[in-house]
Amino acid sequence: MDFIVTLQCKDQPGIVHAMTTVVLACEGNITQNQQFTDHDTNTFVMRTHVETTQTLNQARATISSALAHLNPSLTFRSTDVRKRALIMVTKESHCLRELLYLQELDEMPIDIVGVISNHEVLRPLVESHGLLFTYIDVNTQNKDAAEAQLLSIIDKEHVDFIVLARYMQILSENFCEQLQGRIINIHHSFLPGFKGAKPYHQAHERGVKVIGATAHFVTPHLDEGPIIAQDVAHVTHAATPEDLIAIGRDIERRVLSQAVKYFAEDRIFIVGARTVVF
Amino acid sequence: MDFIVTLQCKDQPGIVHAMTTVVLACEGNITQNQQFTDHDTNTFVMRTHVETTQTLNQARATISSALAHLNPSLTFRSTDVRKRALIMVTKESHCLRELLYLQELDEMPIDIVGVISNHEVLRPLVESHGLLFTYIDVNTQNKDAAEAQLLSIIDKEHVDFIVLARYMQILSENFCEQLQGRIINIHHSFLPGFKGAKPYHQAHERGVKVIGATAHFVTPHLDEGPIIAQDVAHVTHAATPEDLIAIGRDIERRVLSQAVKYFAEDRIFIVGARTVVF
Amino acid sequence: MDFIVTLQCKDQPGIVHAMTTVVLACEGNITQNQQFTDHDTNTFVMRTHVETTQTLNQARATISSALAHLNPSLTFRSTDVRKRALIMVTKESHCLRELLYLQELDEMPIDIVGVISNHEVLRPLVESHGLLFTYIDVNTQNKDAAEAQLLSIIDKEHVDFIVLARYMQILSENFCEQLQGRIINIHHSFLPGFKGAKPYHQAHERGVKVIGATAHFVTPHLDEGPIIAQDVAHVTHAATPEDLIAIGRDIERRVLSQAVKYFAEDRIFIVGARTVVF
Amino acid sequence: MDFIVTLQCKDQPGIVHAMTTVVLACEGNITQNQQFTDHDTNTFVMRTHVETTQTLNQARATISSALAHLNPSLTFRSTDVRKRALIMVTKESHCLRELLYLQELDEMPIDIVGVISNHEVLRPLVESHGLLFTYIDVNTQNKDAAEAQLLSIIDKEHVDFIVLARYMQILSENFCEQLQGRIINIHHSFLPGFKGAKPYHQAHERGVKVIGATAHFVTPHLDEGPIIAQDVAHVTHAATPEDLIAIGRDIERRVLSQAVKYFAEDRIFIVGARTVVF
Asked: What does the domain layout of chain C look like in residue ranges?
């Protein structure tokens, strides 16, 4: 059996030694290992790929016990088990399509539990891929009820994380806090940044030469969660606002998929206000 | 003789026809031509490379007269004549070094009139390249006098444009207005943007995955002039603030040089709040 | 009515003047114009976007007649009329999916006449998008018959161009010659290049740090036609051959789509062994 | 004291454990660690950054002894000690200038022992930077003598590695073998590749859309050594062969500097025909 163990704890001497000792005790062999010490927060993070003849439960018990003195956050996942994702969308399909495309090519190691939307527009697309589409009406009156329904689905379906694939509603602070580090969002990014409506039109008026997208964890403070992935494209004066929007779609779908893949493979650690991505 | 003529005017039918007619009348041949219509501002811009047996003065007179009904802004430059640049620096050398490097390789078609600084640090570097270094003390008391000295140099040396190659003083509104469209600046750029001091440290704290630089014209409103060129580099969590600063230097020098080269070759038009760059 | 006219002819004085004169005579207004002179072959190419109150037939007749002395190749296309594409595939779907994705988002201005394959694998995907799928068996015995069937479809369906979206059969010299400049292919590209089978495995063995893809016109000499678009991705030692193949798929689909879009918008000119792409 | 230890050996269980055990025994703390297993060659490589109160000699002795059973290749370098580089050039200065630029900005952690050339052209540049310039005449008659002189300098000056910064002479097989893994070269790279003279002119004729550069170790088989770093730039039909050459210079200097920096920081391992670069 192959599994990934991730560890995050206060930096201190002997961590790697403790891990390698216990992996040997589990009759395990480390096939990949990545580690990083964040000096700002004095945090140590490590992602270790182990192959062993033991079961995951056995290895988990042994490792958890042996490392308890480090007071670590530990996660264990058999590489056979895929994380369960719930995708949320509104009307735009480009990010959703990319996730479906990659999954059908077997390049996106997640199980998609279903797609939630506050509009019916994307139901046919979702259902044509054999996935469950759930419409949840959201308005100013029923937000609490809508999020309660969402939480019940998350609970019932053992959802590991949520992908906001252009979901245009703001989630409540409370909801974001409950799912801290488990919601990934995508939004456009510009140099310089623009406040307010129609950002691509503003970017056009200012004649920006690059446009970008940022995938980040959602925190109660909108669009300010730890950044997971970013990319940009070069544009020229000849691009209309519509062209910029189309180019933006292309960057958004690629950056979001990259972030989801990193999450699916246990490559992301949240350290302070930022991420370590192996 | 080869020359570049640039034209900017209100969009209207018959502009290209008028230009091609008068170029033929000048016994000229168009070897390159680029044009763009900006619909937001209803502005037409065109850059035309002409070879002719006439002198530049002859061609200029004929063309100016024949196109007068379009009420255009016209510039003419023989490709033998290089624009005259004044470079301003403070203590950092990376942008200056890149301009010198490119010029010594004959890849930067400008004449460098001299280098101005509000510090003495870069005098040896400048003088070792055989260039004139002028120290102009700038403080809150003498800003007007300093800018008057600058304007006198610009006038006496027939300076076409100023390159702020990491010049860390703010120029007065009045100065910027007098030289509108003739001062090029470089500054770092991030997704998201950061206000205040130590931007690279802020970028590090937020864990940005790309850092960038923007070259732009200076307007009385600092860092908000029309953008000429932008680029970014990808960075990871492993980069320290010092690494980010070093990577930033590398992007800054390349983006500024690109912008200066565009300006030197008459490739930039200011249209509203943005640029057209051919 | 808006239309695109492209012109290619021997370079000579007065071409732009002649075009602008006749466009005015057609009561037309040039809204975009791009031109280039290739000095190696002494060829002039120009792409002109015109709006006019005349019909396309009227404008075509007037322009063709007025420019006849230049002995040009001319094409005319109303911007309302999309080029008709025939897509050919074998078993891999990534390039096909990208074309379908872009078309469904209205970002790929082509009409897809249908999809041809020498395998049945992709029939369900094609038909689920409401497109015609035609299986044409190809083997060493029946190649002539297969290409005859293909030519009959091209003729009957008024196909403007063929997109080889990972079609793994070699087309005959005769077929390629008949459709010169109308078949676009995609293939992987490496630094250095590799001969023979399993190129991604060879690339892995040599530890290349970038892998790329090239979209090009097909000529009777396989993989050596004029290049339309190229791009690369950075890779590290950690990428397995399978990872490289997945990254390669991503580059291939983007580069091929870019090339198809350029073709659909009349942006490509073949000049000698190379292309001009506006 | 901080030091970097690199280890390369046959993959086997317990390597990381053995290293972490002995580092603890040295009163050391691991501040960075990177490892990779190459399955093709069954090779394990690891780069470990250690801080300790012991001297380098003490730590080296303890670690070498404790890991002897793994039969590893080990290197040790105090981070205070810079590698000693000998730079070889012919007439072109762009790569040399970049190395000097980075060193003067304190971004290139090497000691430059001197510059060797088979021409006198770059003497003034080298000497103006306060470096030793040695002219070694090379011709078909005296190649052996020239290389003997080179080897004597390498020996006398304790040269760690050679940077061929556009050195246009072929080194003998014998010389390359003696310095295997210690000579870094840069050369241009294209998709597709071109044989023979004037590659940029060939690239222009074929209308390539990207041009690149590859930094690699020199082996007795020219231009085929393990690749260290590669990058490309996008170009268009408008670029002349001279433009391509200028763009090529820009890529070459950046890619070579990147490779030299990796080497200076002990980040490169040669594994079979390829490199692992941390």
From this structure: 2-78, 83-277
Closest CA to C149 of C137, C133, C166: C137
Model confidence at D223: pLDDT above 70? no
Please judge whether A21 and D17 are an interchain contact, meaning their C-beta atoms are less than 8 angstroms apart: yes
- Which CATH number is associated with domain C2-78? 3.30.70.260
| Fold of the A83-277 domain | Rossmann fold (3.40.50)
Q: Judge whether D223 counts as a catalytic residue.
A: yes
Nearest-Å Rg of the Cα atoms of chain C is 21
**What confidence tens digit (pLDDT) does each residue in C201-231 have?**
999 999 999 999 999 999 987 667 999 999 9
- Interface of D to C at Cβ within 8 Å reads 36, 38, 40, 189-193, 204-210, 212, 214, 223, 226-232, 234, 236-238, 271-277
Write down the mean pLDDT value for chain A: 95
**Domain B84-277 classification at class level:** alpha beta
**Cα dist from A139 to A142, A223, D148, whole Å:** 6, 21, 83
> Tell me: the pLDDT tens digits for A102-133?
999 999 999 999 999 999 999 999 999 999 99
Are the C-beta atoms of residues A116 and A88 closer than 8 Å to each other?
A: yes
In this complex, how many residue pairs, one in chain A and one in chain D, have their CB atoms less than 8 Å apart? 37
Rounded to whole angstroms, how far apart are CA atoms C49 and C30? 6
The complex scores an ipTM of: 0.92
Is residue C58 a contact partner of residue C26, using CB atoms and an 8 Å limit? Answer: yes
DSSP one-letter code for A170: P
**Partners of residue B13 in chain C, C-beta under 8 Å:** 24, 29
Out of B38, B106, B223, B243, the active site residue is B223
CA distances from C102 to A89, B54, D212 (A): 19, 52, 30
Quick check: B21 and C17 CB within 8 A? yes
The verdict on a CB contact (< 8 Å) between D24 and A14 is yes
**Residues of B in Cβ contact (< 8 Å) with C35:** 32-33
Shortest Cα distance, chain C CAs vs residue D278, angstroms: 9
Is residue B221 predicted with pLDDT exceeding 80?
A: no
CA dist., res. A142 & res. A148, Å (int): 10
| Over residues D210-217, mean pLDDT | 95
- Give CA–CA dist B233/B247, Å, rounded: 8
Give me the pLDDT at residue D189, please.
Answer: 87
Cross-chain Cβ contact B14/C24 below 8 Å:
yes
Q: How far apart are CA A149 and CA D174, in angstroms?
A: 74
- Looking at residue B182, its pLDDT comes to 98
